[in-house]
Amino acid sequence: MDIFTGLATVLSDPILLGWVFLAAIVGMIVGAIPGLTASAAIAMLLPLTFYMEPLPALAFLYVIGKSGRYGGSIAAILFNTPGTAASAATQLDGYPLAQQGKAGKAMKVATISSVMGDFTGEILLIIGVAWIAAIALKLGPPELFAVYFAAFIVIGSVIGKSVTRGLASAAFGILVSMIGLDPISSTERFTFGNFDLTNGISLVPLMIGIFVLGEVFSQIEERGAKTQMVPADKNDAARNGLTWAEYKPCIPHVIRSSFIGSFIGMLPGLGSAIAAFVAYGEGKRRAANPDDWGNGALEGIAAPEAANNAVSGPSMAPLLTLGIPGSTIGAILIGVFLIHGIQIGPTMFLTSRDLVFALFACGLIGIVMYGVIGYYGAAFVGRFITRIPTQVLYPIIFLTSFVAAYTSRGNLFDVYVMVAAGFLGWGMRKLHFNPAAFVISFVLARGAEEAFRQSLLLSDNGLIIFVTRPIALVFLLIGLAAMFARVRSLNKQARAAALKDA
Q1: Nearest 5 degrees, angle CA 130-CA 131-CA 136?
Q2: Per-residue pLDDT for 142 more than 90?
Q3: Within 13 Å of residue 298, how many CA atoms lie on the same side as its CB?
Q4: Alpha-carbon gap, residue 254 to 245, rounded angstroms
């Protein structure tokens, strides 16, 4: 099988293994820092991959994404501050356990569950991605545009608390992507006579601004007291050790949550946070001890952590087969593929099949690495983070961001774009718009425009072609159904909250 060839390739290359090992450490540390995310780390490190070979570059950022998802649990358990949005579900039971002196036990459960969930998702990706790609090859421009349309609607309506703001964020991302030259007529669009805008907005400074500077601005605004860690008692093996009898009740929750996370990961835009909370709710509903959940139940850590990391692998499926990122990390990885001249989409499994499966092999090895490091060193990582003062951390992040934005193309204009995007990202967070929907839509817009125009060239009746093609119609209806379902769900929640207040 291709995956065994990929594993042999990776294991025989010590330099590549070194990059994977470094990624496991970097992702864990960044994920564990409250306020930073794996997306921010990947955005900052993206320019570094310009000078790397394609496989090490992709593997480095891919494993950072995996390890970063897990690293968020460290902050949630030790600091009562979720390192990522998804780890907020882990916080519900993780921090109460830390207060009971069982932080070590909680982190071991989080580590094992994350590894099992991530392995499940990665194996499902390896098994199913080539099959999905084979189907995608049969899709024409109308079907592809319908898939893009469904992705826009799902990303805009499902992510975040407001459908209107989510769709507006997605629409704004599409609008910004249109800056530059028209791909067919080469006429200028939204350049306002500025020569630097004729080539459009560069992806790298935009993402650094949105994900890094925007988040840092928000953290500076909300900065309060210094984060305190709940220490784990090293001398109490009963509290911080983990036995098979203790973890055994978690197994059914881990298995169920792994499949929940894998399914949600395949749907563009939903992400780890939704997977974690869905898994937590389903786990609590099926639990033999539902009253213990929220008060320090080990199962309450296992369920969301398995779902959180299970998203990682399957979220690559729409990216590799259709060119549609399933997450913000996937949107950033598109930049790496483009930088190295790799055309993503279903034909990738014909032209770069060895590269794809070697990347999957790096993912499997990265899971093992961050699992071992996390199991034995999560508490050390937590203590290390508490020693980093924000007055040192933030200047380093700012300096790194400016250097990364400039070196992406050696253009000072990209620095201006990054700063503007930083304030935009901060404003979007403050006004409850969705930065992730904005960036993913920005990335998808060019492909969607190309498919749309090709569809019109194939049609004699204009837009009717999207209705007369059955597969295209199905995807259009899926997008609309997802939006209406989300609106109905939010209205139901609003009515329930109103009744509760009354």
Answers
A1: 90
A2: no
A3: 25
A4: 15
Residue 495 CB burial class (10 angstroms; 0-12, 13-18, ≥19): exposed
Non-local (6+) Cβ contacts of 146 within 8 A are: 466, 469, 471, 472, 473, 474, 475, 476, 479
Conformational region of residue 424, where left means phi above 0, alpha means psi within -120 to 50, and beta covers everything else? alpha
Least confident stretch, 135-139, 181-185, 367-371, 434-438: 135-139
Q: Which domain holds residue 130?
A: 2-501
Give the whole-angstrom CA distance, residue 247 versus residue 231.
22
Number of domains comprising the chain: 1
What are the pLDDT digits (tens) for 93-106? 888 888 888 888 88
Place of tokens 């837009």: 463
Q: Would you say 117 and 255 are in contact if contact means Cβ atoms under 8 Å apart? A: no
In whole angstroms, give the CA distance from residue 414 to residue 422.
12
The answer to whether 28 and 67 have CB atoms below 8 angstroms apart is: yes
Compute the distance between CA of residue 146 and CA of residue 197 in angstroms, rounded to an integer. Answer: 29
Query: Please, where are the H alpha helices in 80-213?
Result: 88-99, 103-136, 141-158, 163-177, 203-207
**DSSP string covering 260-275:** HHHHHHTSTT-HHHHH
319 membership: H or E segment, kind and range: helix 316-322
| 164 residue type, one letter | T
What length does the chain have?
A: 502
Whether residue 366 is predicted with pLDDT greater than 90 in this model: the reply is yes
Q: What is the distance of C-alpha 185 from the center of its chain?
A: 35
Helix ranges restricted to H, 137-188: 141-158, 163-177
* Closest-CA residue to 123 (of 322, 257, 319, 314): 314
More confident residue, 258 or 291: 258
Query: What would the pLDDT profile of 272-328 be if each residue is shown by its tens digit?
Result: 777 887 888 888 888 888 878 888 888 889 998 999 899 888 888 888 887 777 677
Q: Is the pLDDT of residue 16 over 90?
A: yes
The per-residue pLDDT for range 177-235, each reduced to its tens digit, is 888 888 777 788 888 878 888 888 887 788 788 877 887 787 777 665 445 555 544 44
